[in-house]
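Email to the structure team, subject: glycine dehydrogenase (aminomethyl-transferring) model.

Hi all, the expression group asked for a predicted structure before they design truncation constructs. Nothing fancy, just the tokens so they can compare against earlier work. One-line instruction: predict glycine dehydrogenase (aminomethyl-transferring), return tokens.
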Amino acid sequence: MTVSASNHRVVSGAPEAGGAPVTTFTGNRALMLEEPLLFEKGAIDRWGVDLPDVPAVATRLGGLERTAEIGLPGLSEPDTVRHYTRLSRQNYAIDMGIFPLGSCTMKHNPRLNEKMARLPGFADIHPLQPIDTVQGALALIDQLAHWLKTLTGMPEVAMSPKAGAHGELCGMLAIRAAHDAAGSDRRVVLVPESAHGTNPATAAFCGYTVEDIPADARGRVDLAALKARLANGSDVAAVMITNPNTCGLFEPDMIEICAAVHAAGGYVYCDGANFNAIVGRVRPGDLGIDAMHINLHKTFSTPHGGGGPGSGPVVFSAALAPFAPLPFVRKTGDHYELVEEEQAHVSTDHDHSFGRMVAFHGQMGMFVRALSYILSHGNDGLRQVAEDAVLNANYVLASLKDLFSAPFGDAGPCMHEALFSDAFLEGTGLTTLDLAKALIDEGFHPMTMYFPLVVHGAMLIEPTETESKASLDQLIGALRSVANRMLTEDANIFKGAPYLAPRRRLDETAAARKPVLSWQG
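Reply from the structure team: attached below.
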């Protein structure tokens, strides 16, 4: 889009009529409305409400008083509401269509869950209320904890971690506390290539040295390489493994892996972000896992945190249960209490707790939504969640692998996500990024790109269990159409995509390296 001296806005890349570009005075494309920034719409010398003069009071800012206007734009209430409503129309959302992001599980959030989370007894409570006034909330937390332990086959759970990566930190801190209590100075954590990228970062944050374990030709952990490293493993504190892994594959040697790690004196941390692929089918505790976080948004349909209202409970084996963090809910008779004191005698189950991770006990709204989802589905329903997620992913894999390159397409069925590479584009001059940008013009959010790193030009697609065959067929059709065009048409066409989005392709490298963080009028 360009703006002329007369403030006439010309739509860039619009469809053509009679060979001439279609232009509009406003820059709007019918109901796709062009929306300027708030700073462009408003003015700092006008405002939408009348406020009384601020009374003169003694300053308490210690010389840090503002000496100039803050420079925020003034807008009326209708201007403000219209601005954000118009911007919302340019967002892609799960209520608009499928999110094919791999390893993110962006799926439908049932409205029943939202209704339950808005009940006053849950939505209006305060974390500093007296315990006697929040007995229902604590009972809900305790019931959710019970089902998480039941579904995973683990005896203990920490409910307070606020996200998956926070849960990883919780699990690794418990492992470190267990080694410290035993007088062990083990400081190496082994992380397979197929693990989530946060795993090595979490281990390093805890002060461990991280070593890679390669993947084999099937995309699974190289068991021989792992055992060879463990043979000299007196320095190995733990293995952090993702199962199902980031290639969308189940680790069939998990029991043998856990046995080998335990024999070498280490613990097994499992990244449970992909639990939605096995919930109701496999209990991680039966595999020998010592700690595992659960992303409630991925398996139990709470809203995706995105740095906001996330939740990542961590389940523990009997060996690590004494080291679980505070606070935790304890039921005595018919009364629930929140145990917060960091003292060795607070509980025989937590007598070696590594302490407190957060100020309060977790994200109440996420707990309500997750329990609503579990109770709505029941045991057979949760089992079907996993089965449908795996069925949908394998349908995508089978429908595309004759055209797209599937590096592990012959290694057996995938789990919750299908992995492709850009090998089929070799010689075209086009890349995974070009395909993703062209997919935007088809009305889809692109899949996860360039991850996992073990596959060149990776394209990771996770359809989730909440998508119908009809929606999957539409996505598959769009992907096949774009891929076929990339193989037969002028490559320069795809270097300019997207053409129909509110904004054209950005220089993402420049945006990352030279971000503009303040408004320059």
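Residues 280 and 363 are 24 Å apart (CA to CA). The radius of gyration is 26 Å. Ping us if the truncation boundaries need rechecking.
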